[in-house]
Amino acid sequence: MKPYISIIIPAWNEEGSIEHTLRHLQDHVDLMYNPGMRIEIIVVDDGSCDKTYEAAWPWADKLIKHDRRCGKGAAMQSGVAEARGDLLLFLDADLRATAGRALVLIEPLLRHEADMAIAKLPPPRTKAGFGLVKGLARRGIRRLSGYETEAPLSGQRAVRADRLRELGELRRGFGVEVALTIDAARRGLRIVELDVPITHRETGRDWHGFMHRGKQFAAVSLALLSRWKERKQLWYSSDRSSI
C-alpha cells in the first residue's frame, strides 16, 4: 500500500512568503509523484492580521484559520487533527524556494529506518544571535531525555502519524519542537537528523532580532520546565508505588 503524506504548514503573518513556499513545494511534489502515492498540503493560518489566508488558498488542499493567534504548537495540532496521512511532514511557512528540498525527510520513514526525521539546516549566512537559545535547547533535551541533538530548534521534521499520536497533544507555543523531541526520545522513537539545504528568514543583531530570540528563549525554557516537572512527577509516583 502506497503511503499517504500530509504536509502541515503553520503560518502567522506570512503573506509575503507563503505563496512562494507553497508554489515551490507543489512543484517538487509533482516531480516526486508516482501512481498510488497520495499527498495533501495543509496550511493553518494562526490568526494572521495580513492576507496569509488569501495567499495560501489557491495552493493548499486544506486551509484552516484560527480566529486568534494560538501559537505554533496549537497550529501544528490543528493540522494534525485534520491530517489523513500516515506520514506527517511539518514545514515552516517562510522556506520559499527551498521548501521542496524538505521532502527528503520522508525517505527514512518510507524505508522504515526511522520514526522521526529532523532537518539540520546550513549555518546562517550572517551572524545573528550568540547561540544561547540553541545551547539551552540542546542541553535541556540531553538532560531530560538522553538524546543528543544537533538541530534542537528545527521546525522541519517528518514523523509517523501513529507514533506522534502516542505522544499526546503537542505543546502550545514556540517551544513545541523542543518538547516534541524530548517526548519522542523518551518514548523510544527512532530519530535521525539529516543535512538539508533549506533556508528561511533570518533575524539579525538588531532590536527585532533580539526581541525574537528573547521570546524564543522564554518559550524553550517553559517547554523544558514542563518536561522536567513531568519527569519529577513520574519519579515521585514511582517512589510512592514502591512504598
From TrEMBL:
Keywords: Glycosyltransferase, Magnesium, Transferase. Its EC number is 2.4.1.266. The keyword 4Fe-4S does not apply. The keyword Magnesium applies. InterPro entries: Glyco_trans_2-like, Glycosyltransferase_2, Nucleotide-diphossugar_trans. Residues 6-122 form the Glycosyltransferase 2-like domain. It is an enzyme of class 2 (transferase). It catalyses: (2R)-3-phosphoglycerate + UDP-alpha-D-glucose = (2R)-2-O-(alpha-D-glucopyranosyl)-3-phospho-glycerate + UDP + H(+); an NDP-alpha-D-glucose + (2R)-3-phosphoglycerate = (2R)-2-O-(alpha-D-glucopyranosyl)-3-phospho-glycerate + a ribonucleoside 5'-diphosphate + H(+). Its cofactor is Mg(2+). It holds the Pfam family Glycos_transf_2. Belongs to the glycosyltransferase 2 family. This is Glucosyl-3-phosphoglycerate synthase. It comes from Paenibacillus anseongense.
